């Protein structure tokens, strides 16, 4: 688990091989601090984006389930150097409200919200 993002919008990230039981302990703590937790962003141990998991899936899963078993099939991401024009177009042609932002090596560095466009 790690924090990335800005002071205005911290981003809580979970390792994909974390068990639901362990994730729930962290979710409980971060929910108290009012951090955004839906969806949960998953990375591998090197910080590369591995996917996203809906919080409801975690809440209803068995404690021994690993988060990667719950991840959504599709996780579109934007590269950090994606132009504003291309980002706006992508928001217009998808139903997404946000996209994870990654480096060329797919390291997760933040998110961009549709509200920004």
From TrEMBL:
Name listed for the protein in its UniProt record: CBS domain-containing protein
Organism of provenance: Cerasibacillus quisquiliarum
Superkingdom, taxonomy of origin: Bacteria
Phylogenetic placement of the source organism: Bacteria, Bacillati, Bacillota, Bacilli, Bacillales
Entry GO terms, CC: membrane
Residue intervals of the CBS domain: 75-114
TM segment ranges: none
GO molecular function terms listed in the Swiss-Prot or TrEMBL record: magnesium ion transmembrane transporter activity
PANTHER family associated with the record: MAGNESIUM TRANSPORTER MGTE
InterPro entries hit by this protein: CBS_dom (IPR000644), CBS_dom_sf (IPR046342), MgtE_transporter (IPR006669)
